[in-house]
Amino acid sequence: MAVVRDLRVLLRLRDFRNLLAVRLLSQAADGVYQVALATYVVFSPEKQTSPAAIASAMAVLLLPYSVVGPFAGVLLDRWRRRQVFFYGNLLRALLACVTGMLIVSHVPDWLFYASALSVTAVNRFVLAGLAASLPRVVGPDQLVTANALSPTAGTLAAVAGGGLAFLVRLLASDSDAAVVLLGASLYLCAALASLRLAIGLLGPDHRPGRTHPSVTEGVTLTIRGMAEGLRHLADRRDAAKALGAMTMMRFCYGALFVTLLMLCRYSWSDNESDGLALLGIAVGVSGAGFFAAAVITPWLVGRLGTLGTITVCAAGAAVLVPALGLFFAPGPMLAAAFVLGLATQGAKISTDTVVQSRVDDEFRGRVFSVYDVLFNVAFVGAAAVASLMLPVNGQSAPLILTVAALYAATSLLLARQGRCFT
Predict the structure, then answer these.
(1) Counting beta carbons within 10 angstroms of the beta carbon of residue 50, is it exposed (0 to 12), middle (13 to 18) or buried (19 or more)?
(2) For residue 322, cis peptide bond before it (omega within 30 degrees of 0)
(3) pLDDT at residue number 389
(4) Closest CA to 410 of 313, 321, 299, 337
(5) What is the rounded distance in angstroms from the CA atom of residue 18 to the CA atom of residue 86?
(6) CB atoms within 10 A of CB 63
(7) CA torsion sign, 278 to 279 to 285 to 291?
(8) What's the rounded Cα separation, in Å, for the pair 2 and 147?
(9) Which residues of 165-182 are buried (b: 16+ CB within 10 A; e: fewer)?
(10) What is the spatial distance between Cα 122 and Cα 86, in angstroms, rounded to a whole number?
(11) Euclidean distance between CA atoms 269 and 35, whole angstroms
């Protein structure tokens, strides 16, 4: 197969392999850490979770560091990205250890959330840097395949990390703190793996004579730089369209994710352990959809173009989400999880490729940080909407139909843009 051949070519590139190793370890740690947070917040026996509580938790964890996103982008366009991976993962390892100690100490929720927020705030620098660095280790004609392999492999690593977290929690007598410490060790491994990359390899390239700004100058430059980044994006309408479509699909995914959480917690199980096991299965099935997207998307992009691929992904989700989701039964919902994994990751691969290929390198960090902000705001917004529409048992036909309509609208709006770009 052509896809397999292209993957073999990429994996022969030493710098690509090293960057991929950093991504895999970082996102595996993310998966472990996120499962620890989810089980502590949603599936703890002493907590009576509601859709509103989930929305509140997501707002606390996601919205504040969405503000960090633009600042991360501007700094990524000034700092050596290799150093961001090294020091960022070291810092996350330390902060994750602090979170683990807070869980054991049974501190107030606000203090736990503050610690968790600090880990996810640093995550903005690492993930945006990984995306901005990819064009530095592959050729322009390899970007689609690299985007199919690298982010998807990272997502699968996060899924694998989540699975490992479930296993550790089972073996460690439901200890969320032990799971957090496992995540900390993986963050440390990611930091060490980044040392295999040359300091200047990943950029950014600085013009001669440029000096490093002070903190005050950095804040001013951040605001000015974000305005410049948005103007740069506005001049590249194909990238802007792809980002808009991906944001809407992320909103839909977030609403369905909250639905799945409530179904696992209250509709499909009689206790927290069984509900958590069902959630783990659903996450694994969705991960299989991500893997399928990595194989299929390069082929689709070659025939439909990047915008055409996003259009097809949104249209497929519009049809299959209500067809499978309205049963509110584990079997059909697991099938829907696979479909959403395939559609969402296929659209993301295409969007990443558009942004990387259309945005100039000196603006790429800022644009990818905007991308992250849109992702987080859409997800939190979806959780807020879901909290208003969902009953405690998670069974809401109006929500499923609303999500399907949004997917359909996204597909139709993209189709109206005319012939797909490549």
Answers:
(1) middle
(2) no
(3) 92
(4) 313
(5) 13
(6) 16
(7) negative
(8) 15
(9) bbebbeeeebbbbbbbbb
(10) 12
(11) 18
Mention every residue, 6+ apart, whose C-beta is less than 8 A from residue 306: 144, 238, 242, 350, 351, 353, 354, 420, 421, 422
Q: Phi, psi (5° rounding) for residue 326? A: -70, -10
* pLDDT one-digit tens code per residue, 117-137: 788 778 878 888 898 898 899
Confidence of residue 421 (pLDDT cuts 50, 70, 90): very low
**Tokens 């509103």, residue located:** 52
Q: Rounded to an integer, what is the distance from CA 255 to the centroid of its chain? A: 15
Q: In 3D, which of 376, 279, 383 has the Cα closest to residue 52?
A: 383
Distance, CA of 333 to CA of 326 (rounded, Å)? 9
114 vs 111: CA distance, rounded Å:
5
- Which amino acid does the sequence have at 285? V
Report how far residue 383's alpha carbon sits from residue 392's, in angstroms, rounded to the nearest whole number.
14
Please tell me the predicted confidence (pLDDT) of residue 422. Answer: 44
| Helix (H/G/I), strand (E/B), else coil: 95 | helix
Q: Could you report the per-residue pLDDT of 317-334, keeping only the tens digit for each? A: 999 999 999 999 999 999
Residue given tokens 């997800």 in the structure block: 379
* Encoded amino acid at 352, one letter: D
Residue-wise pLDDT tens digits, 219-252: 677 677 777 777 888 888 888 999 999 999 999 9
Q: Is the pLDDT of residue 256 over 90?
A: yes
Closest by alpha carbon to 203, among 84, 380, 320?
84
Which amino acid does the sequence have at 409?
A
H-helix segments, 134-236:
143-171, 176-194, 215-234
375 burial type by CB count under 10 A (0-12 exposed, 13-18 middle, 19+ buried) = buried
Closest C-alpha to 125, from 88, 78, 150: 88
Structural domains in the chain, CATH included, are 14-202+233-415 (1.20.1250.20)
Quick count: other Cβ atoms within 10 Å of Cβ 86?
Answer: 20
The residues, ordered by sequence, that sit 6+ positions from 276 with a Cβ below 8 Å of its Cβ are 39, 43, 166, 264
Q: How far is 244 from 236, CA to CA, in rounded Å?
A: 13
User: Taking 90 as the threshold, does the pLDDT of residue 17 lie above it?
Assistant: yes
Residue 148 banded pLDDT, cuts 50, 70, 90: confident
